[in-house]
Amino acid sequence: MRPWTGSWRWIMLVLLAWGTLLFYIGGHLVRDSEHPERSSRELSKILAKLERLKQQNEDLRRMAETLRLPDGQTDGGPGAMGKLRNLEEQLIKAKEKINSYRSPGKDQEELRRKVENGVRELWYFVRSELKKLTLVETGALQKHVDTLLQDLGHQQRSIMSDLYHLSQADGAGDWREKEAKELSDLVQNRITYLQNPQDCSKARKLLCNINKGCGYGCQLHHVVYCFMIAYGTQRTLILESQNWRYATGGWETVFKPVSDTCTDRTGASTGHWSGTLKIHFIFLFVVLRLNMGFFILCFLAS
């Protein structure tokens, strides 16, 4: 009889729990029937939430449709998959860049605030002194202006000192120096590569005549402009400097040659600078001035 006694205990517990649940539900039903307006409001809220959930679900479905690759690209071969992998790599790099961001250090933030305060104080000082000028007598005006310029010089030097320390804070100065050296090495190596081609006879060339009708500094600027155009158009610079007014023997008698291996002026096709850059050997006109837009245009056209 003992096993049955244990079973009856479990049955009684289940019946008791079931009765309690019925009593709880019945109580709620009775209360809700006593307050139909509140029940109606709660039901309206529930329906409104369901409607918002349906709208959000529809919005998510449309977003998923727009992000999904077109049917022609899902199995479009290695081209589509390559673009997809490229986008994934860019996304990963962007996330790594965001995660690796380091907030400014204490020294950097303190110096930034110091510079900001210095600029604000400079404005207050200038505004105050300029207002005083209207009250200064004509005879004392020059002395007042000289004193003002001297005080402004002190303010300017103080701000420049703070800016220098700000540029060096938290290792920024070392980073800037490293970046500048890497950029310098890149440009130097590129110039060396362009100026010393493996086959000089097949290299595209740019002839620059140093004998421009101006002074020594102006002619050196002209050589620099020629180098910039040669660099931008990916050509080997040939410098024409015989009978140069400052060294009749030519550039090479006083300076290092612009090329160690390629000084030959020959080419498969020759011509003056024009709208096309396909000519093998180009005679460059005298450059009066050069802007960055022209340099970029030369680089893109090449």
TrEMBL record:
Residues 202-302 form the GT23 domain. PROSITE patterns: GT23. The chain crosses the membrane at residues 279-301. Pfam families: FUT8_N_cat. Keywords: Glycosyltransferase, Membrane, Transferase, Transmembrane, Transmembrane helix. GO terms for biological process: protein N-linked glycosylation. GO terms for molecular function: alpha-(1->6)-fucosyltransferase activity. Belongs to the glycosyltransferase 23 family. This is Fucosyltransferase 8a (alpha (1,6) fucosyltransferase). It comes from Cyprinus carpio (Common carp).
